Amino acid sequence: MLNKVPKINYERCYPSRLKKFFRADINYKTYNSFVPNVKNPIIGNIPADIIDLFKKDKGTNIKYFQNSLSNITKYLRACYKNMKKENIILSSFKDLADELPIFEMSSSEIATKCLKNVLPQGVHAEIRYVGRGVWGNVFKFSLKNKNGEKIIRDKALKVYHNPQIPTSRVSHMHNNYAEANFWSFLKFVAGHKLDKSQFTRHYISDLKNGYAMTDYIDEQICKTTSRLCLKNLFGILSKDPNKPIQGKLYDAGGFVKAPDFIDDKVVRRYFKKLWYRNSEKELNTVILDLENKISNPKTPHREKIKKAIELFKQKQNKNN
């Protein structure tokens, strides 16, 4: 007689880090099913010029600074929600009018207090309101010495209104999770830090506490000299009228996959080899070299190389 098979309680395995998932694809429709359960909900790190301020115990101080940013974020979010609830503001902090500097001063004091154990002596933080979007508020984050001189480049701190939102028709391309995903994917597939592109440099996103930090856009920001053609290069479209500031974009929301989105990293790699050619002569040389590789049955990824060539020629014909 067969023994009774005992019931087994299966536990779902969640990723400890999101880097691999976020680099592989965008527009996940299941963010809420796995992001809240990861062990490390942080993508990226605090900026290098801030890390340079830590003379010792850098690992400990980095974590302390990240936790401090979380507390600052919670304070700014609570202020926004409470002021709206109490009808002190209608839609944004600009409704405070003459009292806005008072709010910024108190926020700066709170930020400095949160960071006092990690900042060099005499250094204080400054928080200035920049603007409000559908999904969050943006603040200018500065660190200054006792003489009021900046000791780092200004950063933009985006505080999301709601770190988590219910799954909806737009949650795959907007808010905390989707935007962190897009930043991670874009930096990875572009192969650089985006400084010279139309996007400002992204440093860190905390998906649990709902903030992101990027470079602040001002006259000193790196100029856009190598614009990324997202549609032709990666098959990505913008569904939002994101308006650039001095040729740069803060907003990583509203981007979606086009029908010709390249979802295979090998195909993408060979497609980029074809795309970034300086002349027709150089392009023809590369295509001929790849076609010779395809003709060799021992060449790995032959079908993917072939697909990359086909996609490139399709896009080339459309553009012509």
Descriptive account of the structure:
A 6-stranded antiparallel β-sheet has the order 1-5-6-4-3-2, sandwiched between helices. Strands 7-8 form a two-stranded antiparallel ribbon. Helix 4 (58-85) runs antiparallel to helix 5 and helix 8 (265-275) crosses helix 10. It is built from 10 helices and 8 strands. The protein has helices at 19-24, 31-34, 48-51, 58-85, 100-115, 175-190, 230-234, 265-275, 280-295, 302-319, and strands spanning 42-44, 124-132, 136-144, 155-160, 202-206, 211-215, 236-238, 255-257. 39% of the residues lie in helices and 13% in strands. Residues 4-11 have low confidence and may be disordered.
What brief labels describe this structure?
elongated, two-stranded antiparallel ribbon, 320 residues, six-stranded antiparallel beta sheet, 8 strands, 10 helices, alpha+beta
Gross geometry:
elongated
* Major pleated sheet: 6 strands, antiparallel
The level of helicity is 25-40%
Structural class: alpha+beta
Strand coverage percent? 5-15%
H/E order of the elements?
A: HHEHHHEEEHEEHEEHHH
Radius of gyration of CA atoms, rounded to a whole number: 23 Å
> What is the overall number of helices?
10
- In the predicted model, the low-confidence regions spanning at least 5 consecutive residues are 4-11
Total E-strand runs: 8
Which strand order spans the largest sheet, edge to edge or round the barrel? Answer: 1-5-6-4-3-2
The end-to-end distance, rounded to whole angstroms, is: 75 Å
Global mean pLDDT:
90
Quick structural summary:
By secondary structure, the chain is an alpha+beta fold. It is built from 10 helices and 8 strands. Helices cover 39% and strands 13% of the residues.
